Amino acid sequence: MSVQDVIVDQLAKQAIPLRTSDDLDVLLEAIGDKKVVLLGEATHGTSEFYKLRMELSRKLIEQKGFSFIAVEGDWPSCYEINRYVKQYADAKSDAREVLEGFDRWPTWMWANEEVLALIQWLRTHNAALPPERRVGFYGLDVYSLWESLQEIERYLQEHGTPEQLALVREAFECFEPYDKEGQHYGVSAAFYGESCEDDVLKLLAALHEKRMRYEHDREASLSAELNALVAVNAEHYYRIMVRDDVESWNIRDRHMTEVLRRLGEFHGPDAKVIVWAHNTHIGDARATDMADDGMVNVGQLVREAHGEADVFAIGFGTYRGTVIAAKSWGAPMEAMQVPAARKGSWEELLHRAGAQDQILLLNQEDPLLGHEVQRHRAIGVVYRPQYERGNLVPTVMARRYDAFVHIDESTALRPIAIKKVLV
Asked: Which InterPro entries does the record match to this protein (predicted)?
């Protein structure tokens, strides 16, 4: 019997069938009192991943008192969701209108029917709670350089000093020649020394000082400060990306981890957080070949910061199905076929163990799943099924995740059409 046959035999005995939402309760029991739950996805365009993460998040919020959801999305657009679900007086009142804010490619990641259902539920849940206990929704990512600067300027026009407003306008002027294209700025900064680093660092320092001074409007002040943090790290990210893919990846994941840290600090020592991000971000990088390249990720950094006993990471994968993705960066989205997983991959082994949706609870000390390296599929916003081999990540499953949810045949996400507003 081959090693893979032995793995299949163990998976068949260990996996728990996933037929209804009640079957997810085994994950809640395994999570216990942990304060950080990381929910992954093997693609950014699979309906089941979003629906199951919503159901898990609902259970965690209702039964275990989790404080907020933080996602692999831009801070400004996600903060509009936060304002909507917490029912701020001047927030948008229509969920579809809120999702119109995700108008930068890839729009489908957050402007979709599945997220619409999540935020409508979250708004209803929050309506019965006092403002200080309402569950938040925040973005962790680093890409929204210009949008974040716009939000800072809007905030400072109402709450800031002339000196602070001057700082954000100086930063805008520095970035203005690059026509809102991070790569254009990156090339100029990396090869011609045209850096805006000092401008955004001064802005971040000024906003941090203001938040500490004006406690009456803490969440709006926090948002302005985190928009400034985005500007700082986005400037660094774009400056490095044209020269070093590994370091730019690390800048991005360290940024997401720092945003998580600041959100946790803001919500207090008892805060509990749910994170939605791709498996490549939430699964521990040390259990993959990412570590060989010097890459870190959120899953590793959060485990190191909080201790593994307080973090629970759940990966998600599929054997075959359909997905929303694009054939190249910036290309139109489309529904694509996800071919049957390659022989010997974790997805194929789980399919052989039982052609059904399954939950796998994992233990790092498992003599087989805690040591065996097998390939594991990862699909991004750009996907070409004919080059499937490039989407396979060597993975020690039980060291990368604490649990894994396998969807045997998945379906594509349901995007919401975004109407571009010409100005």
From this structure: Emycin_Estase, Hydrolase/PRTase-associated, UCP036794_erythomycin
Percent of the chain having pLDDT more than 70? Answer: 96
**Residue 169, H or E segment:** helix 162-175
Place of tokens 């720092």: 258
d(CA 110, CA 8): 35
* Two tokens, residue 40: 């992954």
pLDDT in the model for residue 421: 46
At which of 227, 244, 261 does a domain end? 244
User: DSSP 3-state assignment of 376?
Assistant: strand
The average pLDDT across 227-238 equals 91
- The pTM of this model reads 0.94
> Residue length, the chain?
423
CB under 8 A, 24+ apart: contacts of 101-104: 101/76, 101/77, 102/73, 102/74, 102/77, 102/418, 103/418, 103/420, 103/421, 104/74, 104/143, 104/144, 104/147
Give the structural domain span for 167: 144-244
Domain count, the chain: 2
> pLDDT for 287-308, tens place per residue?
999 999 999 999 999 999 999 8
CA distance 402 to 358: 14
**Residue 103 resides in a domain:** no
Does residue 420 sit in helix, strand or coil? Answer: coil
Q: Cα–Cα distances in Å, from 11 out to 5, 136, 357, 360, 420?
A: 10, 37, 13, 8, 47
Return the pLDDT at 423.
Answer: 38
Instruction: Name the CA radius of gyration of the chain, rounded.
Output: 21
Confidence check: pLDDT of 122 > 90? yes
Regarding whether 336 and 198 lie in a shared domain, the answer is: no
Cα 309–chain centre separation? 22
Determine the 3-state secondary structure of 162 from DSSP: helix
Helices 145-159 and 162-175 cross at an angle (nearest 10°) of: 160
Residues 6+ apart with CB under 8 A from 229: 204, 255, 258, 259, 262
Looking at the fold, whether 237 and 281 belong to one and the same domain comes out as: no
Cα angle 71, 77, 81 (rounded to 5 degrees) comes to 75
Integer Cα distance of 24 and 155 in angstroms: 41
Task: In whole angstroms, give the CA distance from residue 325 to residue 413.
Answer: 10
- Mean pLDDT of the region 257-283: 97
Question: Of the candidates 255, 367, 263, which has an alpha carbon nearest to the alpha carbon of residue 36?
Answer: 263
Could you tell me the two tokens for 125? 């849940």
